[in-house]
Amino acid sequence: MPVSTSVPRSEPRVGVWLIGARGSVATTVVAGCAAVAAGLHDPTGMVTATPLFADTGLPELSSLVFGGHDTVDCPLPKRAEALAAGGVLPHGLPAAVASELAAADREIRPGGPLPGDTRHPDELIASFTTDIQDFVRRRGLTRAVVVNVASTEPGPTGTALPPSSLYAAAALRAGCPYANFTPSTGLNHPALAPLASASGLPYAGRDGKTGQTLLRSVLGPMFAQRALTVRAWSGTNLLGGGDGAALADPAAAAAKNAGKERVLTDTLGTTPEGETHIDDVPALGDWKTAWDHISFEGFLGTRMTLQTTWQGCDSALAAPLILDLTRLLTRAHEAGATGPLPELGFYFKDPAGDGPSSLGEQYAALAGLAERLREREPGRPGEGR
């Protein structure tokens, strides 16, 4: 029987506008939010559901309303069924949250630009902005957050804004805090810097840290703190699904790998030899395997190695972090925060603003944000950053 996650009238409702709203990650976010809100599953993987964030005024999961942009037309309920068949979602969950999936699907609008679209970038931004503003108005939302979870695009060439940057500009023009969970350019395009500065909105980083780079952000500081010399660090990723297909493009893979390598440079203080390779293996679907081979030297130049294997499900790893970011950006916006939020670097390969690269230090910064949010009562105007 479908569950109900209706929200009491007194509880403010918050919009979550997903770019790539019919993809595996977005579908897992919507289905997972409904399941946790209804008490069908625990909020495993959600840092905001831990005692660290008790009494910080974060919005309840039951208050979140989903919509978004996408260029594909596969309905969310059908996509969820496919994910359940592949073991990504629990068996029976798509049926249990069918009404929530259908409601979110009705709020998805056509993205772009599609092949043959002759609209000027300003027209596309205006159209996307209108879609978001209409969503907020029709659903009676107090505010909305925009999160990019679309497939990775190649890095920009020339001055033209890539699609991810068009969506980022629309988010700010619609008055929405923004996070880019992909390696795509998004808000990082130089042409958007004036808009980001003038918007007065909080925004987070780029490229979610869910697997191989999460491990690197722990191991890199370990080597540095133990004064061990890393000579080479090589990695391989095997993945399928939409991301695997997108990253088969060398330009898109280069954008992805830049974040992985940046974490090593920042945490080790030097750039070791070695490269990271990404291979598209369609048979893996939404699952990925990442191998790392680390060559290092100890006392008296003794050569040693460390090898790691990470096997995981991209959507299941990403979805709880996206719900975290939605709640944190909403609360930060309510509290009066503006500009980049380096405290959210815990979630990203490429954090916004200046902050540490070590996961432990990033967690400490996140804890500091929790304390500041706890000190500001919800609904009371906050101080600017």
From TrEMBL:
Highest taxon of source: Bacteria
Gene3D superfamilies membership: Dihydrodipicolinate Reductase, domain 2 (3.30.360.10), NAD(P)-binding Rossmann-like Domain (3.40.50.720)
InterPro entries noted in UniProt: Myo-inos-1-P_Synthase, Myo-inos-1-P_Synthase_GAPDH, NAD(P)-bd_dom_sf
Location of the Myo-inositol-1-phosphate synthase GAPDH-like domain: 211-315
Family: Belongs to the myo-inositol 1-phosphate synthase family.
Protein's name in the database: Myo-inositol-1-phosphate synthase GAPDH-like domain-containing protein
